[in-house]
């Protein structure tokens, strides 16, 4: 059996393992040697406590840059290659004396099966000697090159920070637009409903998921739908609003979910960015105690029956919007229910995980639903989000509707 601890410590280059709270768990031999600190001086401490900024340099920003990068990786689960950094190190044998050092750091997340960040790999290459060696003959040439590299690195870092700030502003605008266009959650007639929307973690990987609830004419009937636009950000929020409104209107005037999706498919072909979006439409008839449904490439709704069994409504699935054959009718199916049943509609952010087949996510959903039979919709929706989504948040949006039948 491979001794991974031994492999880690023998790896070339400076490598450290950190917790998501930015505490050293382990370092390899080269990290300890080149940093001038023993493993005992590092393990259990934070990098910026062991290596503070040079107090003699008012422009020193190594701590700020490192902490920003590590926290970003911990929050987003995405790799971050930092620009070359000047990060002076205090000499252990001469307290108060600081050595000018240059580093090229890369920070990488380690994810568990649910996509949560459980470790950070902090890999560093020291480039001090490289900078000095390429500075040309004489100390003056080295200083000039050092200054140029440092200036370019700071410029690159500032540009990246401005881009991230712009992305954060666009994310906020997109979320505000998304919230404004989604309907307020209201009961269908006298039947309780619960609606939840959770944006994805990350800069722009938000918006595009939508839901709709409408009371239908002709008895005790209601229409419930969810959908997912392929893109993200402001453009996806705009497409989402158009598709939701179109399907809501169609469901009021055509006979059944399949015909409503036929109308939506034709409409989506004229909307830029709507192609390959998914949606599922359901019609609940409480007088007949039947759910009629049709899906355009969307994950199947679930019926949680009073005895705890879960039935996935997967017998009427066709390709996503825009990919359906024109003039070919979409399939439609029915499922019977008894009082005390719950209907659950959701988008793929609830069940999909990296490197995992969607069947595993559906099985996990069925198990959680089965353990919460008889729970009213608001509490059931909260339980599903709590137990289905990763602790740090999902990498895709999640829309969820629970209707008490």
Can you give a write-up of this model?
Helices cover 36% and strands 24% of the residues. The model has no long low-confidence stretch (mean pLDDT 85). Strands 1, 2, 3, 4, 7 and 8 form a 6-stranded antiparallel sheet that branches. Strands 10, 11, 12, 13, 16 and 17 form a 6-stranded mixed sheet that branches. A 5-stranded antiparallel sheet has the order 9-19-18-14-15, with helices on one face. The protein is an alpha+beta fold and 405 residues long. The chain contains 11 helices and 19 strands. Helix 7 packs parallel to helix 8 and helix 8 packs across helix 9. 36% of the residues are buried.
Number of helical segments?
A: 11
Helix and strand sequence: HEEHHHHEEEEEEHHEEEHHEEEEEEEHHE
Distance between the termini: 54 Å
Regions with little confidence, pLDDT below 50 for 5+ residues: none
Number of β-strand runs: 19
Mean pLDDT: 85
Give the % helix: 25-40%
- Rg, alpha carbons: 27 Å
Based on secondary structure, the structural category is alpha+beta
Describe the largest sheet. 6 strands, antiparallel
Percent of sequence in beta strands: 15-25%
Shape: elongated
Features:
alpha+beta, 19 strands, 6-stranded mixed beta sheet, 405 residues
Quick structural overview:
The chain is α+β, with helices and mostly antiparallel strands.
SSE map:
Elements: H1 4-10, E1 14-18, E2 24-27, H2 29-35, H3 39-42, H4 47-50, H5 62-76, E3 80-81, E4 85-86, E5 89-90, E6 98-99, E7 102-111, E8 117-126, H6 128-133, H7 139-181, E9 193-198, E10 209-216, E11 221-228, H8 233-253, H9 257-268, E12 278-285, E13 290-296, E14 302-304, E15 310-312, E16 317-318, E17 333-336, E18 342-346, H10 358-370, H11 377-388, E19 398-404
Parallel strand pairs: 13-16
Antiparallel strand pairs: 1-2, 1-8, 3-7, 4-7, 5-6, 7-8, 9-19, 10-11, 11-12, 12-13, 13-17, 14-15, 14-18, 18-19
Helix pairs in contact: 7-8, 8-9, 10-11
